[in-house]
Write a structure and sequence with these properties.
It contains seven helices and two strands; from the N terminus they run ααββααααα. It is mainly alpha-helical and about 150 residues long. It starts with a helix and ends with a helix.
């Protein structure tokens, strides 16, 4: 099985979910949707795991990566003011949404909840899956912010 097939086997059902599809409506960084961002983090997380032979639980790794920003709002708009502290609060919202929609386990929940470390210093990643997603998210976010700007 090649990498795309292995990733698709785990993520196809999640990606087909109507709520996950809503992530395509929101911009994450530059001109990249939240859905596209999460997909990139999942692919990079898989690549890191495989290249470094880390032997992560792929279901936890890929599910956590795909749902790490499953907060379902446009963080660029203030709205009712609840998005002002987005960087500090969205991981919990994404985690709550993932628990509600997908009944994720505790290990996957932790991947999502801790992905904003060190901005949230009390949420230190405690598993290899959480560390991989945290680092992949930082790299993908930086790349999107610097090179995928809106015109």
């Amino acid at each position: 099985m090649n990498s795309k097939q292995e990733i698709d086997k785990i993520l196809t059902q999640i990606q087909a979910d109507a709520n996950v599809q809503k992530m395509k409506q929101y911009i994450q960084h530059g001109n990249v949707s939240t859905y596209e961002h999460c997909e990139s983090v999942a692919r990079l997380s898989y690549s890191i795991d495989r290249r470094l032979s880390l032997h992560s639980d792929l279901k936890v790794l890929l599910t956590g990566a795909m749902l790490h920003d499953f907060y379902l709002y446009d963080w660029h708009e203030d709205g009712d003011g609840s998005h002002r502290l987005h960087g500090f609060t969205h991981a919990k919202r994404a985690c709550d949404n993932a628990k509600e929609c997908f009944s994720i386990d505790e290990k996957t929940s932790h991947v999502i909840y801790s992905h904003m470390w060190p901005l949230n210093p009390e949420r230190i990643p405690r598993s290899r899956e959480a560390w991989i997603v945290c680092l992949a998210d930082k790299y993908v976010s930086l790349r999107e912010s610097l090179f995928r700007r809106q015109v």
